[in-house]
């Protein structure tokens, strides 16, 4: 047997690191086009992409062709020259090969650049491989001869043209695109460019400073005009017509926006499509509820005799509203606040998220063509710089905030008159899934998978802590581990993909911290690929069994970590809930009330806003109220609740004798005229 094959089949000693020449080589090499560097230090370049659809298990035999050399070009072995491939399992070779092989599919041909610590270390393998040597291998995976797992595509994209969205040559204030020559921020995708080995550039954003952000607030103030602006005084019918026109024009860019969502935040095709369509459907549902005004308030259609007055109740705007939404639903979450606010006559300032801003840039032309100037204004740049500056002016009348409680608190404190600031917020959640011994295991696993890992677990409503009864714990964990490993991973547009790259470049490191903390305190990763990283792709990890001293037990992971802890009694579950900061939702899995489901519903009725039975936690359907307690929410989101959140009841009361005057007011006042009599409305 040839020397190198023998050496590859010997697991290496631990080592100190590469020699100085090797370090210099790797440092220069990682900057070369197409070279990708993994967290371990292993570098590789894709020479050919195979057609395989599976990765080998660490113990599966693989048939490979390879050639190995030192960095000076000295070749020490080649199966090509022997005209015979070699066969070995990933766990039988040096660490660099072990890692690379598990990322490859049949037909892949890569060039590996392996640091000494992932090869033969300080000892080397004399006489051909000196100690502390960096090695270069060309390797082809010809055939997986053992078990395999579904392929996790590299985050590199070789054949799809990325969008390029210009959000840096202008700022959108006062209904105009104002030329911008100031600082800019490059927008990159979590999908890596296979030519550069770095995140793909998909656009730019203007980077507004505090003073420019205040200009946006001043433009909003002008449009509001102390409540006497064109938009706040417009009739409901006119505002509905304008918003319907806006949605129609926006929908012309549906395909482009969906594509941008996939590139910028790595939502798969189905989820990106649902985000756009659900956003439009929500807006249309709000409009429909306003057409039947009694769905929002009683006494809204006509003057009604109540005691010694005749009264009608309408809804008016609060004023200038600052809205902040997160990256995970950049369109849907923002529009769930913005559309009801606009329909009720408010003026809006949108602080675009650093990640997820590009779909909003694509909406500017539609806004300009359908809404009066200054009704919607954009702020870009660092939130910590721009948002406090806006709040400190005192211009803001209402805050719509979806994000962290810490961020919400800071903004509220920045307002000089917080008593007059109306706040709507949807914040963090550490939703629990509680599994009783009699739960339908198949149904439970399906719902827990949806709840914990839909969009990589990056949802405020995600199930972030599973509490399972001792009697069923091992069976549930085993089933979850199998289900997690079967999830297709890859690029957002890959057919059937469920796990995609993470938009936040720092998120894999944070998730790894949580996992390591749990492991050092006794927990284990229960699935084979759990917590492995591949560029911006983080393989979902099932971590069990957690205890309260572990960070993952309490912190909101907001990513693909499935956290499991055990419980022995209902009192145990209630105590955990009592001690939690979270107050959003709970999911209870049981086939009967015998284990105490009703007891938990009663207990959680004062802790969370929604209890789900044999269902994952979720916001929808949108006609249902989405509320929360504690540090999870302030206010309620739904088709009708959002209208209430961003408006104020306006009562007009007349003397009971003024029946003719009441009729005249109903036909002439923009506020009072009902939509049913819109034909006679004076716009």
Entry summary:
The protein is of the alpha/beta class. The N and C termini lie far apart (90 Å).
Provide an overview of this structure.
The protein folds into three domains: 20-150, Chitinase A, domain 3, CATH 3.10.50; 165-427, 3-Layer(aba) Sandwich (Aldehyde Dehydrogenase, Chain A, domain 1); 432-630, Aldehyde Dehydrogenase, Chain A, domain 2. By secondary structure, the protein is an alpha/beta fold. The longest helix is centred in the middle third of the chain and has 23 residues, at 269-291. The strands form eight sheets. Strands 1, 2, 4, 5, 6, 7 and 8 form a seven-stranded antiparallel beta sheet that branches. The protein has a seven-stranded mixed beta sheet with strand order 25-28-29-24-23-30-31, sandwiched between helices. The protein has a six-stranded mixed beta sheet with strand order 20-19-18-21-22-32, with helices on both faces. β26 and β27 form a beta hairpin. The protein is globular. It comes from Aureoumbra lagunensis.
């Amino acid at each position: 047997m040839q020397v190198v094959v023998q050496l590859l089949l010997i697991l290496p000693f631990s080592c100190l690191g590469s020699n100085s020449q090797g370090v210099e080589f790797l440092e220069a090499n990682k900057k070369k086009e197409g070279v990708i560097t993994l967290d371990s230090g292993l570098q590789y370049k894709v020479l050919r992409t195979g057609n395989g659809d599976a990765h080998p298990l660490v113990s599966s035999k693989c048939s490979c062709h390879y050639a190995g050399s030192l960095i000076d070009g000295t070749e020490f072995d080649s199966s090509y020259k022997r005209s015979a491939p070699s066969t070995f399992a990933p766990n039988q070779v040096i660490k660099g090969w072990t890692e690379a092989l598990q990322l490859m599919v049949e037909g892949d041909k890569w060039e590996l650049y392996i640091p000494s610590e992932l090869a033969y270390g300080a000892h080397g393998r004399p006489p051909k491989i000196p100690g502390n040597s960096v090695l270069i291998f060309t390797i082809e995976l010809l055939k997986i001869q053992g078990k395999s797992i579904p392929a996790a595509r590299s985050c590199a994209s070789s054949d799809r043209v990325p969008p390029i969205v210009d959000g840096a040559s202008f700022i959108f204030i006062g209904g105009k695109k104002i030329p911008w020559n100031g600082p800019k921020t490059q927008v990159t995708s979590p999908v890596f460019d296979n030519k550069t080995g770095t995140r793909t550039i998909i656009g730019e954003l203007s980077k507004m400073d505090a003073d420019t952000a205040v200009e946006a607030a001043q433009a909003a103030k002008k449009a509001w005009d102390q409540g006497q602006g064109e938009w706040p005084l417009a009739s409901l019918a006119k505002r509905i017509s304008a918003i319907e026109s806006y949605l129609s024009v926006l929908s012309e860019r549906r395909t482009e926006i969906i594509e941008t969502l996939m590139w910028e935040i790595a939502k798969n095709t189905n989820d990106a499509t649902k985000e756009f369509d659900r956003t439009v459907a929500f807006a249309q549902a709000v409009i429909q509820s306003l057409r039947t005004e009694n769905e929002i308030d009683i006494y809204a259609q006509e003057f009604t005799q109540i005691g010694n007055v005749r009264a009608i109740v309408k809804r008016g705007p609060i004023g200038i509203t600052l809205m902040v939404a997160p990256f995970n639903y950049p369109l849907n979450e923002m529009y769930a606040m913005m559309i009801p606010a606009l329909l009720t006559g408010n003026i809006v300032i949108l602080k675009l998220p650093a990640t997820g801003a590009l779909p909003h840039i694509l909406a500017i032309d539609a806004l300009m063509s359908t809404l009066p100037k200054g009704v919607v204004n954009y702020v870009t740049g660092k939130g910590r710089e721009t948002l406090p500056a806006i709040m400190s002016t005192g211009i803001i009348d209402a805050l719509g905030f979806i994000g962290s409680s810490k961020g919400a608190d800071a903004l509220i404190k920045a307002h000089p008159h917080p008593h007059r600031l109306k706040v709507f917020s949807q914040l963090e959640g550490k939703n629990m899934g509680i599994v009783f011994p009699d739960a339908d295991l198949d149904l439970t696993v399906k719902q827990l998978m949806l709840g914990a890992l839909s969009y990589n677990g990056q949802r405020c409503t995600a199930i972030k802590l599973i509490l399972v009864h001792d009697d069923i714990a091992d069976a549930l964990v085993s089933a979850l581990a199998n289900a997690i490993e079967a999830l297709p991973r890859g690029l957002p547009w890959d057919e059937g993909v469920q796990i995609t790259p993470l938009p936040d470049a720092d998120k894999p490191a944070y998730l790894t911290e949580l996992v390591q903390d749990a492991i050092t305190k006794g927990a284990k990763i229960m699935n084979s690929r759990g917590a492995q990283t591949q560029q911006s792709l983080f393989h979902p990890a099932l971590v069990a069994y957690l205890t309260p001293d572990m960070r993952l037990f309490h912190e909101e992971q907001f990513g693909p970590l499935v956290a499991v802890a055990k419980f022995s009694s209902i009192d145990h579950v209630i105590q955990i809930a009592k001690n939690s900061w979270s107050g959003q939702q709970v999911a209870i899995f049981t086939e009967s009330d015998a284990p105490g489901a009703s007891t938990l519903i009663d207990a959680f009725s004062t802790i969370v806003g929604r209890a789900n039975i044999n269902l994952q936690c979720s916001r929808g359907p949108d006609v249902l109220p989405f509320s929360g307690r504690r540090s999870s929410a302030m206010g309620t989101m739904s088709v009708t609740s959002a209208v209430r959140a961003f408006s104020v009841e306006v009562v007009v009361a007349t003397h009971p004798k003024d029946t003719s005057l009441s009729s005249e007011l109903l036909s002439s006042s923009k506020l009072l005229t009902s939509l049913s009599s819109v034909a006679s409305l004076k716009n």
